[in-house]
Amino acid sequence: MDGSLKEQLMELMLKIGAFKFGSFTLSSGKKSSYYVDARLVSNHALGGPLVGQLILDLFEEQGLAPDSIGGLEAGAISVSCHVQAAAHYQGNAPIQGFYVRKKPKGHGLKKSIEGNLREGDNVVIAEDVITTGGSAGKAIEAAEAAGAKVLAVVAIIDREEGGRENLEEQGHKVFSLLKSSDFQDVKQ
What we know:
The chain is α/β, with parallel strands linked by helices. The protein is 37% helix and 27% strand. The protein has one domain (3-183): Rossmann fold, CATH 3.40.50.2020. A six-stranded mixed β-sheet has the order 5-4-3-6-7-8, with helices on both faces. A two-stranded antiparallel sheet has the order 1-2. Helix 5 links the parallel strand 6 and strand 7.
């Protein structure tokens, strides 16, 4: 992964407030001295393409060749789209996209997976932030139930709170562009 692109991502996250220092209460009720809103960067005009390029570089470095990328709504949607675009514009093999609904659609086909995921596909599960690994776990379960093979989980940032370890204990490879500890030397 290109170190200068990674540094650009960190700088942008700080500049736009996607990584903030302070006193925060997380959805789990746990207190934290920082807050990560990776959706700000994945939906940013400069950040989204940067995330897509870094993940595509990671695929190359790790020898991953997914047919499709996706994950639990809504955090995975923009991440997946930017990876798809980066692959297309670089002339790489197409990477399809999908997302897993938090609950199945209540009408029509009542699908729990939207997009392009076929039985037998090799997939990467995308995440904006890994904390406990719960969201990635739900997406893995849905993708495997649809007959896909999960190659890995990739996130913009790992909060380093056990999620990576939880997923690895289940036999999954886990990668992140950044970790919360990457920001430890940043002046608050």
